[in-house]
Amino acid sequence: MLDVERLQSDLPSHGLGEPLHFFQSIGSTNDHAMSLARDGAPHGTLVVAEEQTEGKGRFGRKWFTPPNSALAFSLLLRPEGIPIEAMGDLTALGALAVAEAIEGLGIEGQIKWPNDVMLIGQKVAGVLVEGSWIGDQLEHAILGIGINVRPESVPPKEEIDIPATCIDTAVGGRVDRHDLMLKVIEGAGKWLPQLGSPALINAWNQRLAYRDQAVIVKLSKHEIVGKLLGVGVGGRLQLMLNTGEIFEVAFGDVHLRPVDMKSKSAKLV
Ligand code: ATP
Ligand code: BTN
Questions:
Q1: Which ligand has the minimum distance to the alpha carbon of residue 34?
Q2: Which residue in 9, 147, 174, 238 is deepest, having the highest Cβ count within 10 Å?
Q3: Which ligand 2 atom is nearest residue 29's CA?
Q4: Ligand 2 within 6 A of CB of 30
Q5: How far apart are alpha carbons 260 and 269 in whole angstroms?
Q6: Can you list the domains of the chain with their CATH numbers?
Q7: Cα-to-centroid distance, 242 and ligand 2 (Å)
Q8: Residue 131 burial (CB < 10 Å; 0-12/13-18/19+)?
Q9: Quick one: DSSP state of residue 156?
């Protein structure tokens, strides 16, 4: 079980993690953080839960968070003057913070554009950013992070599209969830002032899954096959098509798969 007093004594980090709202079980930490934001909660507010009954991924997909085995938390961010295009960068910031924290455990995480963290081709964490806008300026954002830590946190195969794993399995031991969460929050706080910077895009590119490999990108009405070149300005994914033409994919309900992936959802064509 997470120790709330220990968390409270170790936070905030870089201005993130205070006040702390802790739940043994909740619908979704993102939903709760959003409602706190609407009630005026400050930048840095953290919502943590040991279980989510309505945990969600992008576009209403489900995120599995069984009790006491994962990390599920949401940070309320009120960054100044963030344009609508920065949503992709905020997602990258979350994924980068997770990937770097994992690297601190001696294992190499990769970021599957736009929002997943992978360990040797298996999904270990996901990031969901939800924003509230005034015109085209961000009023606040909720940065939600889910990490599979114990083997019990990995969803049954029938419930997922991409193979999943957990940190303990990768490390071959029992990782301290408290320390891992602190590292992720520290990383998020470190990257926040660098949103939209070339440094953040570079760090993202360095850990990008399937780089230089053939991938399929499934858009709403059609699919594109190309070589994944990297992430460019605004977090757009760059592909090289067979014709040699460069094709850019914007953030959205887009599914990315390596061409040779054997999972059921890889068969997009
Ligand atoms: P893509 O957007 O490329 O299709 P995706 O299928 O992973 O990726 P996301 O919205 O990023 O879609 O993630 C939600 C999906 O993740 C769910 O539909 C489910 O298949 C899977 N999933 C749910 N909970 C977990 C978990 N704890 N660990 C790993 N995968 C999960
Ligand atoms: C995804 O892969 O689509 C993103 C998954 C994000 C899951 C986290 S867990 C904490 C926060 N609360 C939620 O309901 N979702 C995010």
A1: 2
A2: 147
A3: 12
A4: yes
A5: 12
A6: 4-206 (3.30.930.10), 214-258 (2.30.30.100)
A7: 35
A8: middle
A9: P
Residues 171-215 have pLDDT tens digits of 999 999 999 999 999 999 999 999 888 999 999 999 999 999 999
Q: Which structure tokens are listed for 49?
A: 């839960």
Cβ atoms of residues 247 and 226 within 8 Å: yes
Q: In what order do the strands lie in the sheet with 223-231?
A: 246-249, 237-240, 223-231, 214-218, 255-258
- Cα dist. 166→27, 240, 241 in Å? 22, 32, 34
Give the dihedral sign, CA 238/239/241/244.
positive
- Token look-up 């977090």 returns 235
The closest-lying atom of ligand 2 relative to the alpha carbon of residue 27 is 14
**How many angstroms is it from 164 CA to the middle of ligand 1?**
9
Ligand 2 neighbourhood includes 168 CB (under 6 angstroms)? no
Decide the pairing of beta strands 109-112 and 223-231. unpaired
116 lines ligand 2 (CB under 6 A): yes
Predicted TM-score (pTM) above 0.90: yes
Report how far Cα 175 is from the mean position of its chain's Cα atoms: 19
At residue 214, the 3 state secondary structure works out as strand
Q: How far is CA 115 from CA 31, 91, 102, 251, in A?
A: 18, 6, 16, 10
Helix (H, G, I), strand (E, B) or coil at 196: coil
123 lines ligand 1 (CB under 6 A): yes
Ligand nearest to the CA of 127: 2
pLDDT tens, position by position, 13-50? 999 999 999 999 999 999 999 999 999 999 999 999 99
155 lines ligand 1 (CB under 6 A): yes
| Closest C-alpha residue for ligand 1 atom 10 | 58
